[in-house]
Amino acid sequence: MVNVIDTRCIAARTPASFRSVKTVNAGGGMSQESMSGQRVVVLGGMSGLGLAAAKAAASVGARVVVASSRAQSVSAATAQITASAGVEGCVVNLADEANIEDFFSSIGRFDHLVYTAGEAIRLGELDTVDLDAARNYFGVRVWGAYAAVKHAHSRINSGGSIVLTTGIASRRPLAGWSLGAMICSAIEGLTRALAVELRPLRVNAVCPGVVRTPLWREMSEGDRAAMYRGLGELLPVGYVGEADDVAEAYLFLMRERYASGHVLVVDGGAVLV
Length: 273
Fold this sequence. Notes:
By secondary structure, this protein is of the alpha/beta class. It has helices at residues 48-59, 71-80, 97-107, 131-152, 178-197, 221-234, 243-255; strands at residues 2-5, 21-23, 32-34, 39-43, 63-68, 87-91, 110-115, 156-165, 202-208, 211-212, 241-242, 263-266.
């Protein structure tokens, strides 16, 4: 079932706390933890990492709510998610705190918040950076995440979690990556601070390296292909990953009950080379 809604949506019925079920595959291999009975809200779930995380959660039985500022994008994303428990699509302006508050008030209780929202960043040397544009990038990536957690945490069921998104620019920035490094460092600091402040609610972050996603859409097709090719030759794993590779990290942090304040790096070994 797919339901596209706005910030006035009526909440689906959710359990008081999440249920976790272990399933064993037919071959008798390692068990996989189901998320049946859990509700996962993905802000920025229209493409790239967010959509991949939403698909991954849905594939293990979660009911998924995806949200974006554009109704057309919401409809396109929900059409790509196969969810036996259902998927809801919401339109919400992540640059507007009042709109974010209305959104969480309308959807009711849930189990996990995943935040991946953010526009493609134009990288450049310090002297070329437009500060007004730079502040706008912080608006959704940092302040949007801050506002989302502010208005979401009290609505998350016992045993649930928050998973934010950062990047390896905070750990190994290249020339021209000062803006990206600032944003990623801010999210990592926020993750650790919130894990302490909101305990026992778990707060973690996924830290991907370069992945084939729409994040790089501002680059020309030729430049993008050259970047993927060059990085793939350098990375210890030998290739540039896809969004689905990183989605497993979001699932892990949602399900790992003993992890909080952790930043999980998934970069193909990029910080080593």
